[in-house]
Amino acid sequence: AMEKSYASVFLLLVAISCALAKDVGKKETKETTAKPKLPQTLSRGWGDQLIWTQTYEEALFRSKHSNKPLMIIHHLDECPHSQALKKAFAEHKDIQKLAEKFILLNLVYETTDKNLSPDGQYVPRILFIDPSLTVRADITGRYSNRLYAYEPSDISLLYSNMQKALKLMKTEL
Fold first, then answer.
1. Which of 76, 92, 108, 161 sits most deeply, having the most CB atoms within 10 A of its CB?
2. CATH no. for residue 97?
3. What sign does the CA torsion over 98, 71, 105, 46 have?
4. Has residue 73 been placed in a domain?
């Protein structure tokens, strides 16, 4: 009986050490796989050389004080439409250049500000806010059921809407 309990204690110890060794291995791989993602920062792939704000509040503050319009991109990492638009946005040289004239924010979560979801909480959607902190409901995409949605094929419309946001600002302020 004594040998049997020793054997079961021994097996238990072996099982525990195996489990612990597995966890240690997991931790290391997690850290090493996560490291290359560091430069990704706030851009989340929408334009790594652009300056992105961290929160909606910070973006509003910066827009107001720099007198630049704010461009907010609502998206989700696992949404194929968001991913496709992100790729088109990041690869579009003119958009990336023009984006420098904006305060930029991309959100993977919804804000409590109802002004940012005038026609619903769908992704991807892009809204413009001028420095007087007014949501530009007049700058829309081409879909009547999702006014602020853009698809990769709408990238030139998005570009002209960015130009429009800058132009409207100059004429109105």
1. 161
2. 3.40.30.10
3. negative
4. yes
- Is the per-residue pLDDT at 110 higher than 90? no
Report yes or no: 132 and 72 within 8 Å, Cβ to Cβ: no
d(CA 105, CA 70): 8
Confidence of residue 49 (pLDDT cuts 50, 70, 90): very high
| pLDDT at res. 172 | 58
Answer yes or no: is 68 within a domain. Answer: yes
> Which pair of structure tokens corresponds to residue 33?
């796989």
At 32 the three-state DSSP class reads helix
In a domain, 101, yes or no: yes
Contact 84, 154 (CB under 8 A): no
Does 106 map to a domain?
yes
Of residues 27, 28, 47, the one with CA closest to residue 39: 47
- Residue numbers of the domain that contains 72: 53-111
Write the CB contacts of 84 (distance below 8 Å, at least 6 apart in sequence): 151, 152
Tell me the per-residue pLDDT of 54-95, one tens digit each, with 9 for 90 and over.
Answer: 999 999 999 999 999 999 999 999 999 999 999 999 999 999
Q: What is the pLDDT of residue 156?
A: 97
